[in-house]
Structure formats: structure tokens, C-alpha cells
Specification:
By secondary structure, the protein is an alpha/beta fold. The chain has 13 helices and 21 strands. The radius of gyration is 23 Å and the shape is globular. The structure holds cytidine-5'-triphosphate.
Length: 435
């Protein structure tokens, strides 16, 4: 018996083919099956030979309550011509985790096992979640393979950063099962509501055109993105900072570059790799961010200010480490420039997008900032939620437009949300052209 979520999910009744390849994160795929089923989806698992070294077929069979495919040549009776039958049945295919070896095979179009064969035979949207050691992930060959897959309309679910099974730390961790399920759920939700995608089975997301190719609607546009927090030094060893990880801004930069834009990413101190094709300018303080942004502003077509900028800095910066004394220490803080407000005042042709990270009265405060800073859009973000805001890989926002529009995408990955924001920007640019 399947358990169906209380509020009908966009995954209800969908057939999801889950490909599991041979990485340590294969164990997380078990929870993906469980979560998909709780949302009412039918899950069909295909395991590669490598995957069977990490998790048994029996586990997936029990969790999915369906046969698990492991071998192309085994005599099985549940499907007519197995890879074709599953490929046709699928509403979506998710490969999680996807190893470097799998990515290489898929990028070349090899079809030497049940999973790669099914991928070639399906017309359903395909989502691939790479997971591996950071060095393997960052290797130019792996990145090339990922780009190749992306350019063919395959949705890449970016890996998270953090502690990896091999003991190192960096990008390459499989996103949490809840996030992987959220990616599929938002995809079907958007398809059903026509907000992000159109059509059904062969639908592609907003970054992908009707022909399944990556959209290039921002080609020859200069997009300036800011990301991360700022550090305001107190002395040579201490600073005032905030919890921003930069994930949202980096996702926007990556998405804009994929859509053909000339992207300049002004980044505060964050621990993230520069997305392919992006020009990055590293800064530390709000003043440095101000100077870097202003230097690029005039020639920019749009500015997306995802950075969490410190509003204040210590009045004095001690030349030497501040030594402790008896009693309390009082710090005098002075105002930093409000970069976005200044951009709003100097705006000529640019489309300006701000972010409002709030913990209460989210829409009211965001609407105030939209107007006060002369913005075209503001992305209102309730940072008190655990599945949205600073360190999460997913985000749930409302995008308010200066013309009164209100876009409310469902909970989705920051990378997918980046495309929704860019859709707003591209739309506003097109409108401007008409004027
Ligand atoms: N911002 C900026 N410069 C600042 C502060 C904020 O450019 N000194 C930008 C942020 O990048 C964001 C938007 O303004 O896009 C809103 O930032 P937020 O911190 O939410 O609001 P503030 O304007 O700082 O207002 P408050 O702190 O009072 O909520």
C-alpha cells in the first residue's frame, strides 16, 4: 500500500525511474525511494553493477515494492522489452548518485547496461545528480561531460559542498534526499501550473528551449551578480560577518552563464568553486563590494544582488590584535554604503533585482525595499525556514515586481530558482526593448 502525502503532491501517480550508480552515496537513494513513494509516485529502480556493491537489490525492491533492474541480459518477465518499456513508462528519470564513470558514459551515448540504455531510449526529462570526490568532480573531463549533458537538455542537480566520505571537504556531496525529491516535485508542479515549464512528458525546464537545447536568451547581455556575505574587520584576526554561504548568488551566476550571458560575479568570502564561464571578482568588505560593483555597473544590463551585505562596520580597525581587559568592550559601528540603493539612484537602463532576507513581515518589508531602492524585482526570502535561506540547497521565495506582479514558485533547488529569477529578468529586458 502506498502512503500518499496529505496535500496532493505534483508527484502523485508519476512514474519515476531512479538510476543508482556505484558511489558511496547510493545509500541515500534508498531514502529518495521512500520519500518519492510517500508523495504518491511509482518508483522503478535500475541499479548498475557498481551500485550493487553498496546497497543490495533487495533493499530497493522492498522500498519501491517493485522489481529492480540490474542486468540487461537476465531473463525477466515483468516488462515486455525492458529498457524500452521503462523508458516509455517514465514521467522522469533521476540518476542519483551519478558517478564520474556514469557521466562519461552518458555523455558519450554509451548503452552498455540497463541504465544507460534506458536513458538513450527515453523521451522523459532526465535529472542527473553527480556525487563524487571533489577532485574527480572538478576534473576538467568530468566538467566537460556535465556540460555536454546539460547542453543536451539534461537537468544537472548540482552537488552540495561539505565533508565527503573520502575524508576531504568540498563540492561533490549528493544533495539530501528531501532536496532531490523537491527538484522533481517543483518540476512537475511547474509543468502543471505552467509557471516554469510547459507541456508534460517531454517538457524541459525554463533554462531549456522547446527544442530541448539549452536556452541562450541572455546571449550578449552583461549580468552582474553579487554573492556571499561580507567580513568587516575589527583587528587583524577578527571580523563581523553573517551566515551567507553564497549558494544563491553562485547558482544565479551559473544559470546566467549557461543562458549565454557575460557574467561578472562579485563574491564575498565563500567556499564555492567559480561556475564555468563566469568572471569572478573576490571582495571582503562591503566597501570593497561597493567599489567592485560600481566599476562594472554602467555596462551591465542587469544586476542581481544576492549578497548579504553588512550594514555596519567597526568605526576603528585595530592595527594589532585587541587584547582582553576587565569589564565590557564597547564597539562603535558606522554605516556602510547601501550599494543597491545607490544603484537604484543611478539606474539608467539596468534591470535591478534585490533580495530581502527577512524573519518576519516578509512581503511587507520586501515591498518596502523594492520601492525604496528603485528596483525592478525583489526576491523575498523567509530565512527563518530551515529549507530556505542561507545554507540550504533549496529555497522558497516570492518574487515581487515593481509593476505589481507576484511570482510564487514552489520550494525548489537554488539552481532551479536561479532560472526562475532570470526568466523575470529576461522578460523585463524584452519589455524594455519594446519601449
Ligand atoms: N544591500 C546592499 N547594500 C547594503 C545592504 C543591502 O546592496 N549595505 C542589498 C542586498 O544585497 C539585498 C538588498 O539590498 O539585495 C536587501 O538587503 P537586506 O539586508 O535584506 O536589507 P537592508 O536594505 O540592509 O535592510 P534591513 O537590514 O534593515 O532589513
Amino acid at each position: 500500500m502506498e502512503t500518499v502525502a496529505e496535500h496532493p503532491s505534483s508527484l502523485l501517480g508519476k512514474h519515476i525511474v531512479l538510476g543508482v550508480t556505484g558511489g558511496i552515496a547510493a545509500y541515500k537513494a534508498v531514502e529518495v525511494v521512500s520519500r518519492l513513494r510517500k508523495k504518491g509516485a511509482h518508483v522503478h529502480v535500475i541499479m548498475t553493477r557498481g551500485a550493487q556493491n553498496f546497497v543490495t537489490e533487495l533493499t530497493f525492491r522492498e522500498m519501491s515494492d517493485a522489481p529492480v533492474l540490474t542486468d540487461m541480459w537476465a531473463k525477466v518477465t515483468h516488462y515486455h522489452v525492458e529498457h524500452i518499456a521503462l523508458a516509455q513508462l517514465a514521467d522522469a528519470v533521476l540518476v542519483a548518485p551519478a558517478t564520474a564513470n556514469f557521466l562519461a558514459k552518458a555523455a558519450c551515448g554509451l548503452a552498455d547496461d540497463m541504465l544507460t540504455t534506458t536513458l538513450l531510449a527515453t523521451k522523459a526529462p532526465i535529472f542527473v545528480a553527480p556525487a563524487m570526490n571533489t577532485a574527480m568532480y572538478e576534473n576538467a573531463i568530468t566538467q566537460e561531460n556535465i556540460e555536454k549533458l546539460r547542453s543536451r537538455g539534461i537537468h544537472i542537480v548540482e552537488p552540495a559542498s561539505g565533508q565527503l566520505a573520502c575524508g576531504t571537504s568540498g563540492a561533490g556531496r549528493l544533495p539530501e534526499p528531501v532536496e532531490l525529491v523537491a527538484v522533481l516535485e517543483q518540476f512537475f508542479h511547474a509543468a502543471a501550473n505552467d509557471t516554469l515549464c510547459v507541456g508534460t512528458k517531454t517538457t524541459e525546464c525554463s533554462s531549456v528551449g522547446a527544442n530541448g537545447e539549452q536556452k541562450h536568451d541572455l546571449a550578449s547581455r552583461k549580468i552582474l551578480v553579487t554573492a556571499g556575505g561580507t567580513h568587516e574587520p575589527l583587528d587583524p584576526v577578527r571580523f563581523l560577518g553573517n551566515r551567507s554561504t553564497g549558494k544563491m548568488g553562485f547558482a544565479v551566476a551559473e544559470a546566467a552563464a549557461a543562458r549565454g550571458a557575460d557574467v561578472v560575479l562579485v563574491a564575498g568570502p565563500v567556499n564555492l568553486a567559480t561556475p564555468a564561464g563566469v568572471r569572478r571578482v573576490d571582495v571582503l568588505t562591503a566597501q570593497e563590494m561597493h567599489d567592485a560593483v560600481l566599476a562594472e555597473y554602467e555596462t551591465a544590463d542587469a544586476v542581481i544582488k544576492a549578497a548579504a551585505v553588512a550594514d555596519y562596520r567597526p568605526k576603528e580597525r585595530a592595527g594589532q590584535k585587541i587584547k582582553k581587559k576587565d569589564g565590557s568592550l564597547f564597539l562603535e559601528l558606522v554605516r556602510n554604503p547601501d550599494i543597491l540603493k545607490e544603484l537604484g539612484e543611478r539606474k539608467t537602463h539596468q534591470i535591478l533585482v534585490g533580495f530581502a532576507a527577512e524573519t518576519e513581515h516578509v512581503l511587507e518589508y520586501a515591498a518596502g525595499k523594492l520601492q525604496k531602492k528603485n528596483l525592478d524585482f525583489i526576491v523575498a526570502n523567509d530565512v527563518s525556514r530551515t529549507d530556505a535561506g542561507f545554507s540550504a540547497d533549496t529555497n522558497c521565495v516570492t518574487i515581487l515586481g515593481c509593476d505589481g506582479t507576484k511570482t510564487q514558485p514552489p520550494l525548489m533547488s537554488k539552481r532551479a530558482l536561479a532560472d526562475v529569477i532570470l526568466d523575470c529578468v529576461a522578460g523585463a529586458m524584452a519589455e524594455k526593448r519594446k519601449d
